[in-house]
Design brief:
Structural class: alpha+beta
Shape: elongated
Bound molecules: glyoxylic acid, manganese (II) ion
Helix content: 25-40%
Radius of gyration: 22 Å
Number of strands: 17
Order of helices and strands: HEHEEEEHEHHHEHEEEHEEEHEEHEHEH
Number of helices: 12
Length: 413
């Protein structure tokens, strides 16, 4: 095999081009599951895969698989990949680096004359972001068999549209039952991603290798109070849904900051009210709460504390409520051997590297239930992510892609 050379300029051009496919005004990136921009983004990526002579397949929830056949087709493949959907007001690197970077890694291996024994498979996961249905990692949950078909059928977006509706919009056919991956279909899964935190940059490191992914959970709340005229409804008579929601958001902060674990984080990221008129008492509120930790025990204790606070606040304020746990996931422990393989690859290339925790969740959280899994992190500016000024330099990305190519080659050899 010839030396592996990464074309960082071409890759950056592709990252920039994909960022222009957005529901928002560039440089803001928004690509919500099966929106027009998500479909155009998928077509863009599929095209790059075809140009690289990868064989494409799509499952019935829209997960895309692009395969470079190995010489021994009976062996389980080595998989890599990430997502291209983007939350509202996002940047251009989250997920994208792990998809377009993986295509570049595969192209670089092809150009070096590498003949994999195991097939290499790129997976572009459906809806890693929770924007449409409130739960993240929709595609990888179904691949891992972690989301029951009943729960999947019950998913609704804020307009009441279900997964069946959106699957049709996305051109998906076939039954959801067929999505679950058989055991032993992959020898390994390695996802490259920007760190989305400040550690690598602060410590001036090239590469992080993930040993553990924090455990996420989400609560969805619907509060119903009583609306009325802002001038004529006296304060003792109010049943204001926003004020109950505001107290709940503060209870989330308190539960996270007093859990006893420095790693508990709680966020009320969605808070919508109706009717939304300055001279009208808010009669309804929708909240979604994201709660995570690297320890399930303290995460769950904080969750119970929040749920108890919701009961108390709504009873005291005479607010009717529904509360649903959208997801309550375990953490993922990465495969020790695979972690060492990735660390070894970085060292071989003379890149500085450390093993670390992923505080963000990723499709790897669920791929870890399917096969040995780890992640390759690259530094990003000040740890910024889920915001338009998210940034990793072409040089930082190139190093990540170089390590990914090395790891894929070693695993597929
Ligand atoms: C992924 O986008 C996350 O919220 O961790
Ligand atoms: Mn994200
Ligand atoms: Mn991501």
């Amino acid at each position: 095999m010839n030396p592996i050379k990464i074309n960082a300029i071409k890759l950056q051009g592709e990252i920039d081009a994909l960022a222009l496919i957005t529901e928002a005004t560039p440089p803001v990136v928004t690509r919500v599951l099966f929106s027009e921009s998500d479909l155009r983004g998928r077509a863009f990526v599929n095209n790059l895969c075809r140009e690289a002579a990868l064989v494409l397949r799509e499952d019935s929830v829209g997960n895309i698989f692009a395969r470079l056949a190995g010489t021994d087709k009976n062996l389980p493949a080595v998989a890599t990949g990430s997502h291209i959907d983007a939350i509202p007001n996002a940047g251009k690197y989250d997920g994208v680096v792990g998809v377009l970077g993986a295509i570049e890694a595969i192209r670089a291996l092809q150009a070096a004359g590498f003949q994999p024994k195991r097939s290499l498979e790129l997976i572009i996961f459906t809806a890693e972001e929770p924007t449409r249905f409130g739960i993240g990692c929709l595609g990888s949950r179904l691949l891992g068999g972690v989301l029951s078909l009943e729960r999947a059928a019950a998913l609704r977006d804020r307009d009441g549209k279900d997964l069946e509706y959106w699957r049709k919009q996305g051109g998906c056919t076939g039954s959801l039952e067929s999505v679950k991956l058989p055991k032993d279909c992959y020898a390994a899964f390695v996802e490259m991603h920007i760190e989305q935190g400040p550690v690598l940059e602060a410590e001036n490191l090239d590469i992080g290798v993930v040993e553990k992914i924090a455990a996420p959970s989400t609560l969805r709340l619907h509060l119903t109070g009583v609306g009325g005229h802002a001038g004529a409804t006296l304060m003792p008579d109010r049943r204001d849904a926003l004020l109950a929601g505001a107290e709940i958001a503060l209870a989330v902060e308190k539960a996270a900051t007093t859990s006893g674990s420095p790693d508990t984080v709680g966020t009320t990221g969605i808070f919508r009210i109706e009717p939304g008129a300055v001279n009208s008492v808010p009669c309804r509120a929708w909240l979604e709460v994201d709660l995570r930790d690297t320890l399930v025990k303290t995460r769950d204790a904080a969750l119970h504390q929040i749920e108890a606070a919701v009961e108390e606040i709504c009873t005291r304020r005479k607010i009717e409520f529904t509360m649903e746990r959208l997801n309550l996931d375990p953490l993922a422990i990465c495969d020790v051997k695979l972690v060492e393989t990735a660390v070894g690859a970085a060292r071989k290339l003379n890149f500085s590297v450390k093993k670390m925790i992923s505080r963000a969740y990723h499709d790897s959280l669920f791929m870890a239930q399917v096969c040995p899994t780890t992640m390759i992190f690259i530094p990003c500016l000040k740890g910024y992510s889920h915001r338009p000024d998210e940034f990793s330099s072409p040089q930082q990305i190139e190093k990540g892609v170089r390590v990914l190519a090395e790891v894929l080659a070693e695993l597929a050899r």
